[in-house]
Amino acid sequence: MEDTYKTPLAKLARFCEIFIPGYMFGKAWGIAHDSTLDLYRAMFPAFLINIAEGMKEIFVTESHSLQLLFSTMSGAMIGFLVIMVLGLVMHFVLKDRRYIDSLRFTSITLIPLAVMNGTLSHVSNTVIDSLGMGESAEALTSSALQSPRGQIIMFCVLYMTSIWMFGKRTGVKGWRRYGVLGVGIGFVAIYFACGLSITTAEWNILLPKLQAAISAH
Amino acid sequence: MNITKQKFVDLNKWILFVAIPVYLIGLFTPIKYMQPGLIFVFGAAFFCLFHQDYFASRLKSAAHIWMFIFIMTVVSYSIPLSKISSTNNIILYIITLMLSLIPLLLFMFGSTEEKPKKKERLAIISFRIAFQITLFMAWASVTAFCFIKGTRPDLFYWAMFHVSTVALLPFLFGRVICGWICPNATFQDGLFKNMTYKRPIPKLSKAIEEQSHTCAMNISGEVDKRAPLMPATLLLSWFPMFFAETVFDLTQVAWYPIVFMYGLIILSLLFPWRKMCTHFCWLSSYRGLASNNSLWRIRYNPSKCRNCKRCLAEESCAFYIDIRKQDNEMPTTCCLCFSCMEACPFDDVLTFRRDPEEKARLKAMLKA
Looking at the predicted structure, is the pLDDT value of residue A64 above 50? Predict the structure, then answer.
């Protein structure tokens, strides 16, 4: 059966299968700009945003489009780093394939969290836009706190089902399937512990700051 | 007048060949005019083409569909979609009216010697076709609104499109976008499949072609953990479109969805049926990757397959999947069109639920 899969483009396909979800997973961390930076720091783990901001200072250009590309790339690079570390843990649990294929497993199962990151960055941008349009504090609080919570729960559940189903499909046997699920749960717990999603306390400090910044403009 | 199946298909094709330029002229020239009846003409022509085996032998039923479209066009005379609401473009209106009147008269007074097919259409396929055509009509309507009225209802359409096809459906059912949602899929399955002209690129290189036969994954002890999950060319197609979207911030630009969707439709004309979707579609690459994690897929019970080869399942598959080489379910590249299920003469080979024997076999393998 193995021979049927050795096609000339298989290597390239495997590379893309790691690259595309990796890029989508991390890019949200790099796209903050002056007006959204504080909100991004509250929405995502602040140290990830700070690293991405630091990397953006290395590639500075006057072209707005190129700068956007560098911004997403700097976020994506951190995303790859996270995936490589998580992939290493997955590799020790899976133990039935090469590291590059464990990495592929990690990368593809992370797609729900990549979509979640994208959604949260979209929410942050929308909150800033609404703030600029003079939306009430209650409405802003609802869109910054309540709506992301539901989405985070949904995508975390999808992440667990992804690990389970993809594990099943790639023949992860016996207790190892529970093992990779455990790694996934651990990863989500660490992501939360590092500061995923805004807490009410953070929002209460952030809202007056954002309102003051908007009125100053 | 005797109307053979070929004539029936040709007539519906020509209705679309005329309706498409009328639609485009109305939208993208200073005329800025469209009759709502035109959207129904699209729907009826696609419906007849999708169900050609059924309607070619039941011309009166087809005539009833076109009668409905004709009435809709007459009734909607006073409510055209135009830049200035009271304006009516009489030439475009007459063309739209004729597009529904000609098939109505031909099917009403024509006769046929075609015999109805023995095997009835699967209910899930009838539902899929109705869903596909409804979404196509919604897409055509919001695009028309966007370019004629200058308002942006298409933003809501595309937001829903992206939310469902990126964030939800791939994780539940897999690559449904390519079988149920994409307007290009409706074009390909309804119109391009029935077009017999010589394609400018009739064949792709072997390296590209064989990807569709080798991207597979099986829940079994024989899983090749190195197997690519999606064609490389399909994944590579993601790069230019996605980077352009990010770098030039195109998501709010009215022309962007036009370029990416019309681009797909036009490029599809260069290749044989569905080859563009299989190997080069920029819309389904990331969404396809997400589909690897789907909760459900069409089940294949290899122990039930009689190997009669009467199904010609590979020919019916939109994505050229080697169905009989699968272990127990369709691979990620499957778009859930259910054509394989309809093509198989037996009911227990391709199923919604896994066969109990097959279930026990897989359970034992995964436990080991």
Answer: yes
Q: How far is A24 from chain B (nearest CA, A)?
A: 9
Residues B38 and B178 in one domain: no
User: Is B362 in the same domain as B245?
Assistant: yes
Q: Are residues B51 and B116 in the same domain?
A: yes
Please check whether residue B255 is in contact with residue B177, taking contact to mean a CB–CB distance below 8 angstroms: no
Q: What average pLDDT does chain B have?
A: 89
A155 interaction partners in chain B (CB closer than 8 Å): 167
Q: Which residue range(s) make up the domain with B38?
A: 5-151
The verdict on a CB contact (< 8 Å) between B171 and A161 is yes
Same domain, B167 and B298: yes
* Candidates A3, A6, A83, A111, partner chain B, best to mutate (most B CBs within 10 A): A111
pLDDT of residue A1: 43
- Contact flag B246-A166 (C-beta cutoff 8 Å): no
Chain B residue at shortest CA distance from A94: B225
- DSSP-derived 3-state class of residue B299: strand
Domain end call among B86, B118, B151: B151
Query: Cβ contacts of residue B365 below 8 Å, gap of 6+?
Result: A171, A173, B219, B220, B221
Check CB contact under 8 Å for B219 and A16. no
How large is the C-alpha radius of gyration of chain A? 19
pLDDT exceeds 60 at position A100: yes
Give the amino acid at B216.
A
Tell which of B151, B185, B216 closes a domain.
B151
Report the chain A residue with the minimal C-alpha distance to residue B239.
Answer: A20
pLDDT in tens, A111-166: 999 999 999 998 888 888 888 787 778 888 888 888 888 999 999 999 999 999 99
Asked if the Cβ–Cβ distance from B238 to A12 is below 8 Å, we say no
Domain membership of residue B156 (yes or no) is no
CB nearest to A5's CB, from B224, B232, B238: B224
Band of pLDDT at residue B221, cut at 50, 70 and 90 = very low
Least confident of A112-116, B144-148, B250-254, B283-287: B250-254
Same domain, B182 and B129: no
Number of Cβ within 10 Å of residue B251's Cβ equals: 14
Structural contact between residues B302 and B222, judged by C-beta atoms closer than 8 angstroms: no
Instruction: Tell whether B253 is within 8 A of chain A (Cβ).
Output: no
On whether any CB of chain A is under 8 Å from the CB of B238, the answer is: yes
pLDDT tens figures, B135-174: 999 999 999 999 998 888 888 888 899 889 988 999 999 9
Q: Is residue B157 part of a domain?
A: no
End-to-end CA gap in chain A = 64
SS3 B2: strand
pTM: 0.92
B62 falls in which pLDDT band (50, 70, 90)?
A: very high
Contact indicator for B354, B303 with CB cutoff of 8 Å = no
For residues B176 and B318, state if they share a domain. Answer: yes
Number of domains in chain B: 2
Contacts of B248 in chain A (CB under 8 A): 65
